[in-house]
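Entry type: protein chain
Record version: 2
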Amino acid sequence: MGESASGLEEMIAELRRMLPAQSDTAQAIDRQEPFETIALKAIDDGYIEFSHQFTQFIEACLRRGA
C-alpha cells in the first residue's frame, strides 16, 4: 500500500494548500490525524469533492487488497 498511501498523502497535501488555516480540515491535516478523520472533517467543512475522492481511493485500496 506504500504507493497508494503516497498518492493519498499527495492529495491531502494539495488540499491543505487550498484551505484556510482555521478550518477543521486544515487543523486535522496539520495534526497528522488519521486519513479517516481528515475525510470526516472535509465532509463537515463542505469539501464534498475531496471526501468523494477519498472514498474512491479507499474503495480502490480495498479492491487491491491493500
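Comment: Residues 2-18 form the longest helix (17 residues).
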